[in-house]
Amino acid sequence: MREEKEGRKEGVRDELERRKGVAGELVMAVARKGEIPWRSGGRRERGGDWEGRGERAGKKGREGDREGGRKKVGEQQQHHHQTISTNTLHTLSSFLSKINTTTTITTSINNYHLNQLSSLFSLFNLKVTSSSSKTHMANMTTTASPAIHRHQKLKKLVVIMGPTGSGKSKLSIDLATRFFPNSEIINSDKIQVYRGLDITTNKISMQDRRGVPHHFLGEFDPDTELTPSEFRQLGSKTVSQITCRRKLPLLVGGSNSFIYSLLAKRLNSEVDVFDESSSVNSVCSELRYNCCFLWVDVSLPVLNEYLDERVEEMLDSGMFEELEEYFALEGFTESDSVMSRTALRKAIGVPEFERYFKRVGLGGRWIGAGDSELDADVAKRLLYEEAVKAVKDNTWTLAKRQLGKIQRLSNAGWDLHKIDATEAFRAAMTTTSDPGERASDIWEKMVVEPSVKIVNRFLME
User: CA 194 to CA 220: how far, in whole Å?
Assistant: First the structure.
């Protein structure tokens, strides 16, 4: 008789330990179905297999090895601790979005998980109170304020911004392939959205994309201008589609006018918020999405040197030949004015080399009547160097203009996390025996690791 009584006590303890995950399961169930599947005492409201488990657990306690059972309980406790700490966080956003009034949920829970759940819910301004320490009954009274309710409904979006050449695409691929595999990238470079001139516009290659889905990269008609308002409309639809697939959208690019148009809660297409003559108050600080901003920054002297090297690398990769073929197919513009250019013809490299080809001719045919062959070669070389210098100067001007716009958004209250990639770029341009390996290590430590920590915190909020 005494042995049977002890066995029942052991069974009850086992049953309580088995139920220690009820808090996490409860939140997940509410998030999924918007209903309460348990009532006081821990039994299922619609029946189920909780009935009689105490008796079966008691039998197990009488027949099983008690020491082994205690060891198993410890393992279960550790397992459930991890489950509640991580999985529940992923469901709370959905859970809170369904709450706009005070809700009370009563269920059976032990002290260990009552304390854990209280700590967890306090992050979301929710309260968990115990009505009786003796019975371990938890009354979970959850109240979501209107502000919290609105915030939780915003779709989460990671934005990687920075001046041209700062490594935004590289960082986005690092994050998407190694740390956040359920990511899709939305390109926000207003020149790279057009088809054609992949080298000149420095589009990331299919190989370097490493299977990560990209949107708005080389998709649009190169002769038709895509406006910020149109990007806002199309981008909003794409963000919704990505989040509906339960994936994380990464907005990546250096065109701050496109970034602003998509993210700002209010957009006036008649006002250029980046115009220096306009007040910083014209920048809308309210956003349409719950954003995590990563600002990849490089010191100006280092960035300037790198951009010059990048232009040379692009020319070595076939930029000159690509432009020559482009003009052979599309022809020249009637005016050299930048204001007369639209879409792809605005790309840096197009107007600079158009002047060269207009003078030299396509296929290297010199259009200088009466000049000797030597004079023609010298003239072509000078015109070529002039075009290359113009490309470098205009690229540098673009980078400084982009930095000014980013700073303006920061001054307007946008919460930008600056990631300094200067040392990685400096290492990549050194003449050591293996600069690539050293630069890669620095990039990992100074850029990738801080970015991962920031994004992880953002996703767990």
Answer: 5
